[in-house]
Amino acid sequence: MGVSVTDLSNGSNKMSTSSRLSDCRPQHMILERNHSFVQDKEQNMDSTKSDQLKHKQVPLISLPEALVFSSPRPVSELDAAATTLQKVYKSYRTRRNLADCAVVVEELWWKALDFAALRRSSVSFFDVEKPETAVSRWARARTRAAKVGKGLSKDEKAQKLALQHWLEAIDPRHRYGHNLHMYYDIWFKSLSTQPFFYWLDVGDGKEINLEKCPRSTVLQRQCIKYLGPKEREEYEVIVEKGRLVYKQDGRLVSTDEKSKWIFVLSTTRALYVGKKQKGAFQHSSFLAGGATTAAGRLVANQGVLEAIWPYSGHYHPTEENFKEFISFLGEHNVDLTNVKVNI
Fold first, then answer.
1. What are the residue ranges spanned by the domains of the chain?
2. Residue 43 contacts by C-beta under 8 Å, 6 or more apart in sequence?
3. CA–CA separation, 95 vs 89, rounded Å?
4. What is the pLDDT of residues 36-56, one digit of tens each?
5. Where is the composition biased (Polar residues) (predicted)?
6. pLDDT per position as a tens digit, 182-206
7. Which element (helix H / strand E) includes 222?
């Protein structure tokens, strides 16, 4: 039987096709079966979980019954009361904001006054068109003296700054009073017609340099910090459960042995405590040279008062002033049984 070339080629094509199908079909079938099995398995598992979730019991949560507030008053009166309450709160908030603004304004006003006093005590004294009269001199002196006596109207027994420290209070730079007084004695003896601070800084006495108090190293460097109303808050101390506590941040007052800690009680009976720094921060700092009801030194540990002294070179407190401070502590339930008192 003869076979043509065409038949052979067709036969070979058929055989090759058959060979490819035979090779691929089983693999294809196996893959298809495996895939469908996995899908069936996942579907069965999903349906099982779904059935479990459907039949799972969800615990019941009992919510509290809503409270119903009732009032015998009509709704119109209740609305009016709510409006009044809102107005009162807003007015309180406004007053609080205004009070804060007042403190800031007072702080700026203090600085403006000091700047004006500085100009008046320096070159501008001779820049004015009209010469100073006796009346204007007394007015200027009265203004400066009022600064030293600030607070006396609230406590007649309060102590003013010692006379030798008045110069410190009225000096716009607040140079240490003890140092200023050395130069003041020379000015007084010179019979100069120039105001003291003008004489000292730019006038006839500007070249005078005392050996006991050199200008560059002592006089100009030792300037006392005078606190304004806002700065003063950092040093205010209150008494809580018999302990001394800083009002601003709640820290307990604790002094250290290496430093001297000082206090003043203002004429409004506010207590201030801080660390003394000679020629920088002293008793006169707290009230900016104003009068005090009491002043001295103290020792405290974690708010517990351990010792007090009625000593202040700026105020020279009396025994009566010290008793007033003891009374203040007693009124605030400070235990004085173990407090060391040095008079």
1. 134-219, 229-341
2. none
3. 10
4. 544 555 555 555 555 555 555
5. 1-21
6. 999 999 999 999 989 999 999 999 9
7. none
